[in-house]
Amino acid sequence: VPTALILGSGLIGAVIAADLAGDHADQDGEFRITIVDARPEALERAQAWAGGRLRTLVADLADPATIQQLAAEHDLVIGALASHLGYQTLAAVIEAGRPCCDISFMPENALDLDAAAKARGIPAVVDCGVAPGMSNLLAAYEAGQLDHCERIDIVVGGLPRQRRWPFEYKAGFSPADVIEEYTRPARFVEGGRLVEREALSEPELIDFEGIGTLEAFNTDGLRSLALTMNVPNMKERTLRYPGHIELMRIFREVGLFRRDLIEVGGAQVRPLDVISHLMFPMWSYSPGEPDLTVMRITVEGMRGGKRQRRIWNLLDDYDSARGWTSMARTTAFPCTIVARLLAAGRITTSGVLPPERLGGDESLVRHILAEQERRGVRYRFTLQEQ
Amino acid sequence: VPTALILGSGLIGAVIAADLAGDHADQDGEFRITIVDARPEALERAQAWAGGRLRTLVADLADPATIQQLAAEHDLVIGALASHLGYQTLAAVIEAGRPCCDISFMPENALDLDAAAKARGIPAVVDCGVAPGMSNLLAAYEAGQLDHCERIDIVVGGLPRQRRWPFEYKAGFSPADVIEEYTRPARFVEGGRLVEREALSEPELIDFEGIGTLEAFNTDGLRSLALTMNVPNMKERTLRYPGHIELMRIFREVGLFRRDLIEVGGAQVRPLDVISHLMFPMWSYSPGEPDLTVMRITVEGMRGGKRQRRIWNLLDDYDSARGWTSMARTTAFPCTIVARLLAAGRITTSGVLPPERLGGDESLVRHILAEQERRGVRYRFTLQEQ
Lengths: 386, 386
Fold this sequence. Notes:
- Chain A has 386 residues and is α/β, with parallel strands linked by helices.
- Chain A is 33% helix and 28% strand.
- In chain A, helix 5 links the parallel strand 5 (100-102) and strand 6.
């Protein structure tokens, strides 16, 4: 029985653990799982969801030496830590020479560790969630179905089902990462060149079956696709209920997202800390509050002399029976499915692999989609041809 | 030659000084004027506007003993200090036994000093600006034209001529007083009873000739009218460009107007101090930036068996020749006109007099309107009869 190490027992790590522990394991091999987190209560939740089949370990994972030692003791490692720990954790796991997959959404470029992973002969699948993750996989797969791919457009959002004034938004992951998305310039590929746009710019209203009208806006979400795919036009945008973005633009304009210290009333504070303190409690999901995940991947180009638009749509909802958020489901399942593929030796390429590197293998893509479908996460394909 | 003391050389105090110093004095007697402020540069501006005809004095006016001593040395006193100093200043002037008028917009109830003013035998005209001020005077005058007055409705706003994202607002007076208006519950009279409404509530779109559509919303502006007028329905509301109020409601909801200390990043701060620090610079008029003042006073009831609606409209603009804001013009002129009436002995009633107490004297009202018209501030009357 292979051993798996799960680093981080947050909302997503706990669902990864429960899934790997056999919740959907009737067609899969089994693992002996260790899950590690600094917070005992987070481990307890994971243990409850996994039916007591985990080995839990309380440890501070901010130290790469701890990571490396733990990784060396397991056959497979899954990284589900906070984004700011992602890169150093991945480096330590690669150093330990263990195959791994990661969903930490690290700000650094994971491809910088490609040589190290190749040197150790191990596959390290990064950005292995929904977006980044399934977005990369399906974009690359569909680009491969075309003779010439001209455009990849990805829009994606995690949203509360119920819209509540004034934000009509709650954060399924770290709200600080959300603000980072709202402030960092968005990088796109246009006409074959990397261009920068202001974050939150160019809002566009788009209708979605089962939701209604949402607003797409520029965010810096292409990540590795901008480097790995030879497609002249690529952009990733984020979706919110209409109005949220205008409000965030105003907050930014007023200076509430500033990270420098200002002096007020004799004290020195960062405005971002103040607005985070006030706003983030309003961005927290209540226990049992339903969320949704919506994504549309549009890949456009020529095939057999005809213009095709190849579109994948995802709409996923909260799992009220298990209490799993849609954000956790749609992010965790690609990761657990790929983890099983790693354990089964189905992914043999060594190096740091963003999911588009797996998109050329049709049977692998079909398997990843089918396994998600079995867990209730349904991607739907539409072909438009002119 | 009577001597006049002007307390405060802010934007409005300086215009008061220039007007009293003879800028429009061809039909008026003259004053020997002392203007006092803690800021030498504010006194310099007033001196320039008054053509060098002022005696200026640098003094800290936060000490009521200073006020009382200065007041005793003059025949007439005009209060144009910040709102938080208004009440203690008025009390000190009354103590000195000098007739006075005031535009400080004090939060306290000036009528509490009525007995003291009566005991000294002096008239103290308070709230003697545009609103409060002309609003009180005209509401009372028109109520007196009816056999039975059923309703007084006042809407008023000071706005920048040019609307700039995101606030479409600038503060012609203390921005802290504006936030106070946005947070303090609004008190109205409905069906003869004093009722409270949440500040910023019940927005209503209203069109104004020469401006376009504005949004009226509940603020606590009735002040003395709620106590002195026996009219069953009275409300005063504030006007902004549409959208501003929604944004202020959101800021309030998020907690940005909270006055309690919160701890962020190891420091203790009041959220209101933080948002004020960030937002107030965006609320400041640039030098020469044109503002406007808009007001509509509607007085409704029965006269001679017919239903009448007696409406006064004011739309006033920035005086680009003099560099006087509309806010300063419309506030200062009622005060200087009343000051001259006080000096001429035309107002003899002793006690604290909010302007509605002058509204029963038709010749006085006509004079105050005519003198403003001569200064380019035009109130227009409309009668609707059914």
